[in-house]
Amino acid sequence: MLIVTREGDRHCKVRPSGRALMALAYLRRHDTLAQLAAGFRVSVGTAHAYVTRVVAHLAERAPGLLKVLRETDPDFAQLDGTLVECDRVGDGRADYSHKHKRHGANVQVMTDSGGRLLWISPALPGRTHDLTAARHHKIIRICERQGVPLLADMAYIGAGDWVTTAKRRPAGGVHDPTQRTLNQGLAIARAPVERAIAHLKSWRILRHARCSPNCLSTITAALLTLERQR
User: Is the pTM here over 0.85, yes or no?
Assistant: First the structure.
């Protein structure tokens, strides 16, 4: 119905339901455009046009972080970053993640305390540090304004008092029993966001994208729309 509403009664070689299925196959299985074209008996160019339009329609319906927090009003949220690997790169140095030793894009994922997906950020170059990405998207500022504390890993150390992270081990020393227990408790509490990221990677396009990194922000927005319909 979204396709019909946005595109009207225009005549196409594939029905709206078929175009929706084509886009889902592209996102979930990450089938190549050649495979989709062969399966739906259209040209590669036509398959590309259909997939691009449907993904764009979905992305337009993705809510912003502020709207999500106002609607859900979680007690606290969990934040973590992940790398979306990508074959094609723009600026090779900017897209290369030294942490993962791969090219790709940095995407921030936010869930509630139970691991329910709240929001996915637009993509940034792979070399972007998680804390830098959180500041770029104004995640910490928006959560503080809405009164939603954040729980994150040690990549976000230095984000401020509104973000709770584990403590680094002192140089040349070890944690005392109290701090070790606190770190272990935080690691257990962060398990839901790790599971949420693993679930997101069931969309194979987020495992190893063959498209341009410039398209990944639209794709993550489309996936946010689909996941919030579950």
Answer: yes
